[in-house]
Amino acid sequence: MSKPAWGKEENVALPQFAHVTALGHYKRAFTKNGGSQSAVVIMGAGVAIAVLGAVVGVSTGEVFSAAPFVPFALVFFVAGALQSRSARLVATYHEGFAALVGSRVQTFRWNEIASLICNDRYVTGKRTAWTSHRCEVRKANGEKVTLLSVELEDGPVLIGDVKKHVASILLPDLRRSYDAGDSLSFGPLVVSKKIIERRGQRVDWSAVGNVVMKNGKLIVTPKSGKPFSVRVSKIPNVDLLCELIGVTYLQLDLAYIF
Prior knowledge:
By secondary structure, this protein is α+β, with helices and mostly antiparallel strands. Helices cover 28% and strands 33% of the residues. The protein has 4 helices and 15 strands. A 4-stranded antiparallel β-sheet has the order 1-2-3-4, with helices on one face. The chain has a 4-stranded mixed β-sheet with strand order 7-6-5-15, with helices on one face.
């Protein structure tokens, strides 16, 4: 039986995970980031922006004058919706992790995880810059949970830990299949020892000039013809794909730069 999850700094058990006993020995807890805003607050900001746009449109008598406010309102709505479905407490164990989403606890054994879809964003301002990390963890049966670095203390550490465990389980079988000449699917991409393909656009490796990771995209440049690219956020297990095809990159290369 595993120990209950303990708070990161406080020597107090987290009652939300007291019933989790099937994941082996407890390792550590990732608690809510004190600086994060609730989903309600974020979506409320979206409502405020939408209302402001409507006021501007009414006061000027021109509907189109409210158009610049629409993208900003949508960003806040989407961010709030994503945060409402993300984990707000996580405890890691020897054999997996448990996540509290709303009032429900979900458990994920390392060997149950089929894919990770990551979406990193590097945001720059006049005086500061930061990277936000989003990782969707999905089982083969479709059950999933989203881990957000802005929502959890040490969120990037947690996401890195999950990636390490998943790679240790999935990569050996993927490598054997790849070396045997099998075709492997990574979302919109299909790769084998002979080809790389995206939605019917197939290129033999012998005709590929370069493959790089840049600005959150995997970019394939043939020796002749136009290059094609796929956003990292569309490629399940992108780290494992890069291991197989020999693409090296810096962590920042995975992030879409704003």
